Amino acid sequence: MPSGSRRTGARPDKLVLGEFAWRDDFAAARNHADSLATGDWLAWTDLDDSIYGAQSLQSVVANAPADAAYLMALYIYDLRNPDASARPGGRVYRRGSATWTCPVHEYKRLAVDGLPVMIDPNIIRWEHRAGQRRSSIERNLRIARAWAERCPEDPLAGYLVKCSEAGLAGGNHATAYAYLQELHERASGEVREPGPRELVPASA
Which of 23, 86, 148, 173 is least crowded, fewest Cβ atoms below 10 Å from its Cβ? Predict the structure, then answer.
């Protein structure tokens, strides 16, 4: 599976492509893509995302505090209900400061060593263009089943997968996702991203 990473140094227009042997692990794929980058900062997005104010990214990172490890941007997951689905998320980070975890796509997380800072949502925000598709839940369940098998010491892991399967079979995608979310939190033992410390301005 090819994965790419855009350079953000002297040649921001140059696209670097690398080969990655797909193994049902979205975090591993993104970590591989990150390893190809050479700029000081990395920004990520999915194919079904749009970045409002993307032209201000270089200005924002230039104004970031020296001790900031990553920048959190407002992320609107569902444009049909933006107020309820808006949340901050780590989207821009210093190269070498972060590692992606969790193989399931929707629940991969940045494990960051350092302080977060919030980007002013009036300058930059991410907007998600897709919904909860059955095909993506089925893919996630396949990955989650293999994941649960790797942690047999936790008997609840298999149960959560079965609950998610039941939600999907009943057409309740929200329930299916909720159980996958709980599985991720138990299997990874991760703590939610801390709140941002301050706003990062963009230069005029």
Answer: 23
Q: Are 51 and 124 in contact (CB under 8 A)?
A: yes
pTM of the shown model: 0.69
Per the CB < 8 A criterion, the answer to whether 45 and 89 are in contact is no
Instruction: Let me know: does 40 contact 48? Beta carbons within 8 Å.
Output: no
Distance, in Å, from the CA atom of 72 to the CA atom of 79, rounded to the nearest integer, reads 19
pLDDT of 32 reads 92
Exposure string of 71-93, with b = 16+ CB inside 10 Å and e = fewer, is: bbbbbbbbeeeeeeebebebbbb
Going from N- to C-terminal start, the domains of the chain cover 39-130, 134-187
Q: For residue 99, give both structure tokens.
A: 């590692």
- pLDDT per residue as tens digits for the range 78-116: 666 677 667 777 788 888 888 887 777 655 566 677 778
Note the pLDDT of residue 204. 37
Give the whole-angstrom CA distance, residue 155 versus residue 149: 10
Q: How far is CA 70 from CA 5, 112, 119, in A?
A: 17, 8, 10
